[in-house]
Specification:
The protein is mostly helical. It folds into two domains: about 1-95; about 110-198, N-utilizing Substance Protein B Homolog, Chain A (Orthogonal Bundle). It contains ten helices and no strands. α1 crosses α7, α6 (about 110-120) packs across α7 and α7 packs antiparallel against α8 (about 155-165). About 35% of the residues are buried. GO terms for molecular function: RNA binding. It comes from Methylocaldum marinum. This is Transcription antitermination protein NusB.
Length: about 200
């Protein structure tokens, strides 16, 4: 299971993706995601403690763990959804850094022009034409590169690559890495130079 900040990024990518496609109210999206995570945690603990869950609760738990807990495997290794017991075995109750999730979800729209300008300088097409999943990952990661300077750029790049492997197409991670690396080289120059000196 992801650490709380990684899960916050993962949820933020899904939430920003939803916002991009629907232009829904950010507060409603935030409430939906945090509510689902709360439900997942409650059902997970009840299941682990031996309580009988209804069929609907079991289905909901499986769906939520699939969404928030499971790390996607390559198609050749795991083409089908694992049974609930396998999901439970490889998960802990979902813990999210709520403040960080909210910051990412609201920060991307708030700084959208700056973020998209930074991305468009290195993208091979207009940001609006990038695949919506890749666009959400790029925007979340660019937000961190530009506005969360305390987070090392290598962490941001690695998290972006991992998100692309989880949610994107087969080669998405290469595309994401190429753009984010160039954004980092422009906007985190001093940090990169210090890293190379040490």
């Amino acid at each position: 299971m992801s650490n709380p900040r990684t899960l916050a990024r993962r949820c933020a990518v899904q939430a920003v993706y939803q916002w991009q496609l629907s232009d829904a109210n950010l507060s409603e999206i935030e409430t939906q995601f945090l509510g689902e995570l709360k439900d997942a945690k409650v059902l997970f603990r009840r299941y682990k403690n031996g309580y009988d869950l209804t069929e609907n609760e079991l289905n909901l738990l499986e769906e939520l763990l699939e969404k928030y807990c499971r790390q996607r495997e390559t198609e050749s290794r795991q083409p089908e959804r694992p049974p609930l017991n396998d999901l439970i075995e490889h998960c802990r109750a979902p813990e999210i850094n709520t403040r960080f999730f909210k910051e990412l979800l609201h920060g991307v729209p708030e700084h959208l022009r700056t973020i998209d300008e930074a991305l468009s300088e290195f993208a091979d097409r207009p940001v609006a034409e990038i695949d919506p999943v890749e666009r959400a990952i790029l925007r979340i990661s660019a937000y961190e590169l530009l506005f969360r300077l305390e987070t090392p750029y290598r962490v941001v790049l690695n998290e972006g690559i991992d998100l692309a492997k989880q949610f994107g197409a087969a080669e998405s991670h290469r595309y994401i890495n190429g753009i984010l690396d160039r954004v980092a080289r422009k906007h985190r120059t001093a940090e990169i130079q210090m890293r190379h000196k040490s």
